[in-house]
Structure formats: C-alpha cells, structure tokens
UniProtKB/TrEMBL annotation:
Pathway: Cofactor biosynthesis; pyrroloquinoline quinone biosynthesis
Family label: Belongs to the PqqB family.
Cross-referenced SUPFAM superfamilies: Metallo-hydrolase/oxidoreductase (SSF56281)
Role this protein plays: May be involved in the transport of PQQ or its precursor to the periplasm.
Protein name (Swiss-Prot/TrEMBL): Coenzyme PQQ synthesis protein B
Gene coding for it: pqqB
Length: 276
C-alpha cells in the first residue's frame, strides 16, 4: 500500500520557502521522505518558514514538539488555538524568541509571513467550519464538550498571483451551503475522509464513537461528503485525514471504487500538484 501518514501538507509559492499546514506526529518521517524539505545550507537550516494550524487536535499539534531545534519560523492559528497552546507549558519548548505566534484573521485573505517578517508569497483565507474541540480538551460536563467556533477552521490557500485556490478541510462535522459557496470552479479540495460510514468505528469493533460524535462527516450516505459535494464544480477533489479503519485505503475495495466513480481521489504521502 502507498504510505499515508497523518494529515500534514506543505505548500510553497517559490519552491524554496515552505509552509507546513498542521504539524503531524509523523512530521519527522514526513520531512525525511520529502527532499524539498531537507536542509539546503548549514547544519540546522531548513526550508520551513511557517506552520499553520487548523485546530488543536493531537494529530495537528504534536509535531510541534519535534520542531524545537532552535529554528526560527512563524506559527499561525486562531486566537482560541493559540490560547490552548499557551496554557500547556510543554509547547514552551518552542522558543518564543525564535517562533512567533500570530493569530489568523478570519474571513480575510492575508499574506503568510516568515519569522523575519518576509512575505513567503503564500496567501491564506481562514474560515470557521463546523467541528469539535480537540479530544484531549473535551469537558463532558459542558454542552458540546466545550466547543467554540474557532476550535476548527478551514483554509483557502493560494499565491499572490494564482487564479485558483486549494481548500484544506481535514476535519469537518457538517457541510452548510456557506462553505461550499466559497469554492469556485477550478479550485481544488482536500477534505475530511476520516470514515466511510458514520458507525464505522463501532461496526468494526475498534471504538464506540460515531464519526459525527468525533466531529467528522462520513464519506458515504445521503448526508455524507460524496453526496453533499456532488454538483460542486471543482478542479480536483481529494480525501485526506483517513482513519485506518476506512476501507477506501484498500485499492481494490468497493468503497474505493465508489469514491473514484464520484470523481474523488485519495491523498497519499508524496503526492504533488500545482494550483495555478
């Protein structure tokens, strides 16, 4: 099978300065396997200039602890997620004099800057999407487990001169029309593919939570991602953030055939494509 580690992506406007979106626990392995992310000069140089976070899930923040090598970069997240990081002193291994923490401005297209204040050429528009507070922050005694709107965001990524954008939504609990209307024909989409069915974890005997309880939209079913994105004209549609219980990971499965027939691709490690 093609390797599919946890869902980080790397984007660049110039092929030299790289913005990593979500810091996966697998980030060391991902960097080793990706030549453009290797040091170009010096003992500890790195093409990494910036990290963007879409939420505070362990899948997306644990890799920050592997980026503590005194390398300067900028860390962007919502005010809410930055407060979560600030409240957990383990993240102080990222030297604040070297790693600037900046709040994203929701619903605004903004330049992504490096630690020296230089423009990387990448443009991002963050926006709130339906989701859930990170599992490790859940409060069972509070409605919605303590979730607030800024717990989960989607990102529209492009460059200063691009005609189209890449939308990255690795965790999404529902799909209102307001989200779909953000995408224009020719845009590309990386969307939450955690489970194929809502009860997948339960029926497979590996868990007791539904996809919706975990803050995810299943691929299949009348209310699933495939059905809800049907009819939206896009350049490419790819599923990412796929749980190891999901049968679409099997190349010869009927579930894989189902999503492919609907025009979807399955993201994998080392996949590259351009958004113009």
């Amino acid at each position: 099978m093609v390797p599919q580690t946890q869902s980080s992506i790397a984007v660049s406007a110039d092929g030299a300065r790289w913005v990593v979106v979500n810091a996966s626990p697998d980030i060391r392995q991902q960097f080793l396997a990706t030549r453009v992310l290797h040091p170009a000069t010096g003992l500890r140089s790195s093409p990494l200039t910036t990290v963007l976070l879409t939420n505070a899930d362990v899948d997306h923040v644990a890799g920050l602890l592997s980026l503590r090598e005194n390398h300067a970069f900028t860390l962007y997240a919502t005010d809410r997620v930055l407060r979560v990081l600030d409240s957990n002193t383990i993240f102080n291994v990222l030297d604040r004099h070297r790693v600037k923490r900046l709040a994203l401005r929701l619903d605004q297209i903004q330049p992504v800057m490096d630690a020296e204040g230089g423009d990387t050429g990448v443009r991002v528009e963050p926006f709130v999407i339906p989701g859930k507070i990170a599992l490790w922050l859940e409060n069972p005694d509070v409605e919605g487990f303590g979730s607030v709107p800024e717990d989960t965001i989607g990102l529209a990524l492009g460059t200063a001169g691009s005609r189209h954008r890449l939308f990255y939504l690795p965790g999404c609990a529902a799909l209102p029309d307001a989200i779909k209307s953000r995408l224009a024909p020719g845009d590309s989409l990386l969307f939450d593919g955690t489970t194929f069915t809502d009860d997948e974890m339960i029926s497979s005997g590996v868990g007791h939570k539904s996809a919706s309880r975990m803050g995810h939209l299943p691929m299949s079913g009348a209310g699933g991602a495939v059905a809800q994105w049907s009819g939206v004209s896009l350049g490419r549609k790819l599923f990412i953030h796929i749980n190891n219980t999901n049968p679409v990971l099997l190349p010869d499965s009927p579930e894989r055939a189902f999503v492919r027939a609907a025009g979807w691709e399955i993201a994998y490690d080392g996949m590259e494509f351009c958004v113009e």
